[in-house]
Design goal:
The complex is a heterodimer of chains A (279) and B (315). With 279 residues, chain A is mostly helical. Chain A is 72% helix and 0% strand. Chain A has a single domain, classed as MetI-like fold (Orthogonal Bundle), CATH 1.10.3720. The longest helix of chain A has 37 residues. Classes of the chains: A mainly alpha (279), B mainly alpha (315). Chain A: Belongs to the binding-protein-dependent transport system permease family. Chain A: One of its GO terms (biological process) is transmembrane transport. Chain A: This is Peptide ABC transporter permease.
């Protein structure tokens, strides 16, 4: 199964370019201190808001800091938030979905009602409320984005578990006296892993979008910490004089999220047996 | 419906009580000289001296009677504050929904009919762009191009200064000009999702037997597409429309603050910044209620357009 999926993704040009860009962004994030030509925090009062040039390919910001270096460092923040928020969302969704699907009954009712309630809130309202009540920090942002993004995963896993738990191998495991935890984690979830991976790929992109939106509103990553949304937020204040502040960080967000979405779409096609006949 | 409403109030209450320290300590931060007696009095005023479950029940009693409390910022009733902001937000969202429908359905249908064509592939590119682009960034770019460089459209507010004195038709034009950018940008993400959904729903329907039957009995293609295929393909789209509402309302925080539109989103943003808990709670609840109302309308619409549901109820 894994080999088929990998082969199908490597054959898909769009997915491949997405994957390449994800590797590239990872490289930039890990080695940002080598990639960035300047210190992203270094203020230079003589170079305030200079347009893109040879020394400063993305121009400088309102404090004379090099925007290119800040965008490079911003990749770290975005990837950290994207992946950890995804991890929290997938973990919560998988556990709750598996419990709901496996036990059924009133446990299922309570968990699925919670899903309905959470889905009734405009996500951004809920996130903003929590971030406003607690001090915004990168950890709180990750946790909040994760805890408001698990509902779809829970529904997905629940549906998978419902269809898997009546299968022979699960009944056999139950017959030999395996515990519920063992059946869920060893027998059921490994068989439901692929749709979860697809959801995880999409949710990284989604989390990066939300984080940048929060930072843009000033309720996300706090300055002077460089973040893509944060630079755009300054760009809004200088919209009539410094277009470069509004352009480059947005391109970075767009390409990163696009790459995750392309990869997710290719994964979804690749794990769908309907498409296998084409090989 | 009732358990969900209950759950909504519970989550609102939990969120606000996550705060380390109460609003009273927050006011204390503002004026460190406040005496302990004054802080106690303040706590009593806001009912913060009672245990948490009692506070929840008291608050719930207020919410049920649609009393959302008084704002910490200006002491006005939260209900009144929301009431004067809500119409703008709802209007903007309705316009966006309308725009999404008007554009997305023809696009989706056309690209389903021409599956694999250049147009269809262009739609795929557009869909991916729509899903991946940060819409607030798009708003910034649109403001730079149409507002700053070309100077065609105003970039903030919903009316020009002195609009009150204009004659009616000029005021209308002025208002529309102010709405063009926000509504277009707000629709962008929804447009991508909706047209893709319409496309796949249409493709699904076109494979059905009754479409083949309609064609084979010699009905003109136009009738087959519009009367037979489209009507069935639009059923799931109605549901999706209901599901799109929380995203639109949530997005209004970002758009209203970018375009300086005095709606509920902007009120929410400023309350979040000022930690005005009663207003935050009030808008959270109203936002969730709007979502539920949207879903209810979608269900009713579904009931109207799909005769099968009505028949099933009688069986």
């Amino acid at each position: 199964m894994f080999k088929i999926v990998l082969k199908r993704i490597l054959k898909n040009k769009l997915a491949l370019s997405g994957l390449t860009f994800i590797f590239f962004i990872f490289f930039v994030a890990i080695f940002s201190s080598y990639v960035a030509p300047y210190d992203p925090y270094k203020i230079n009062v003589y170079k305030v808001l200079t347009p893109p040039s040879k020394e400063h390919p993305f121009g400088t910001d309102e404090l004379g800091r090099d925007v290119f270096s800040r965008v490079v460092y911003g990749a770290r923040v975005s990837l950290e938030v994207g992946f950890l928020a995804m991890g929290i969302a997938i973990f919560t969704g998988t556990i709750l979905g598996a419990i709901a699907g496996y036990y059924g009954g009133w446990i299922d009712t309570i968990i699925m009602r919670l899903v309905d309630v959470m889905l009734a809130f405009p996500t951004l309202f809920l996130i903003l409320a929590v971030v406003a009540v607690l001090e915004p920090s990168i950890y709180i942002i990750m946790v909040v984005i994760g805890l408001t993004g698990w509902m779809d995963v829970a529904r997905l896993v629940r549906a998978e578990v419902l269809s898997l738990k009546e299968r022979e191998f699960v009944l056999a495991a139950r017959a030999i006296g395996a515990s519920a935890g063992r059946i869920i984690f060893k027998h059921i979830l490994p068989n439901a892993i692929y749709p979860v991976i697809v959801a995880a790929t999409f949710s990284v992109g989604g989390a990066i979008l939300i984080e940048s939106g929060l930072s843009f509103l000033g309720l996300g990553i706090q300055p002077p910490e460089p973040s893509w949304g944060g630079i755009l937020s300054v760009g809004k204040d200088y919209i009539t004089v410094a277009w470069w502040l509004s352009l480059f960080p947005g391109v970075a967000i767009f390409l990163t999220v696009l790459s995750f979405n392309l990869l997710g779409e290719a994964l979804r096609d690749a794990i769908d047996p309907k498409h296998w006949a084409e090989d | 419906m009732i358990p969900i409403l209950f759950g909504i109030t519970l989550i609102c209450f939990i969120v606000i009580n996550l705060a380390p320290g109460s609003p009273a300590t927050f006011q204390e931060e503002l004026s460190p000289k406040a005496s302990p007696e004054a802080v106690e009095a303040l706590k009593k005023l806001y009912g913060l001296d009672k245990p948490i479950h009692e506070r929840y029940l008291n608050w719930l009693k207020m919410v049920v009677t649609l009393d959302l409390g008084k704002s910490f910022v200006d002491g006005r009733n939260v209900k009144d504050k929301i009431k004067e902001r809500l119409p703008i937000t709802v209007t903007l969202n309705l316009f966006s929904l309308l725009l999404i429908l008007i554009i997305a359905i023809p696009i989706g249908v056309y690209s389903a009919l021409k599956q694999g064509s250049l147009f269809d592939r262009a739609l795929t590119v557009f869909v991916f762009t729509g899903f991946s682009v940060p819409t607030f960034w798009l708003a910034l770019l649109a403001m730079i191009v149409f507002g700053v460089n070309l100077g065609w459209l105003p970039i903030s507010g919903i009316q020009s200064i002195g609009a009150e004195t204009m004659p009616f038709h000029e005021r209308l034009v002025d208002w529309i000009k102010h709405l063009i950018l926000p509504v277009t940008i707000m629709s962008f993400a929804g447009l991508a999702g909706m047209s893709r959904y319409t496309r796949s729903s249409m493709l699904e329907v076109l494979r059905q037997d009754y479409i083949r039957t309609a064609r084979s009995k010699g009905l003109p293609e136009r009738v087959v597409i519009i009367r037979y295929a489209l009507r069935n393909a639009l059923l799931p789209v109605v549901t999706l429309l209901g599901l799109a509402i929380p995203g639109l309302i949530g997005g209004s925080v970002i758009f209203e603050s970018i375009f300086s539109i005095p709606g509920m989103g902007q009120l929410f943003y400023s309350s979040a910044m000022a930690r005005d808990y009663p207003t935050i709670m009030g808008i959270l609840i109203i936002g969730a209620l709007l979502t539920l109302i949207g879903n209810l309308i979608a269900d009713i619409a579904y009931f109207i357009v799909d005769p099968r549901i009505r028949v099933k109820r009688d069986v």
